[in-house]
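[[Local backbone shapes]]
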Amino acid sequence: MINLKVMRDIIAILIVISILFIIRLCERENCIMADEWTGVSSYYTDESVDPRWGGVTKSGEKFDETKPTCAVLPSQWKKLKGRKLRVTSVDTGKSVVVKVNDTGGFEKYGRSIDLSKSAFETIAPLNKGLTNVKIEVVEDGDE
């Protein structure tokens, strides 16, 4: 029969392995474990939306650059779709609340989020094009 100390050691090892597995999986899948993170934001406009999609966002809504919306990374979509995020420019200190309604392939350019044109110009000058941001989940979506 296995003694109690050996049993505790086995359980502790299994817990550590499980935690390491979850961390590794989240690194690979770009998980968001917290409700706040930092990154770089760019913006997109009616003209920059891929015409193959007919101007329709991942959520099915028509994209409108004048509404406070954003696109997140495809790996974040399931957790963030429909949620409201507060995006604060670290550079200017200004913030805007946006609704997640789209995804984008901007990670390869070192960006974390794409804001609609009107949302971006609320927190940074358009001619800057990029701004360092803090992103916070402020409202649950349609999960």
Observations:
- The longest strand covers residues 36-44.
- The chain has two domains: 1-31, 34-139.
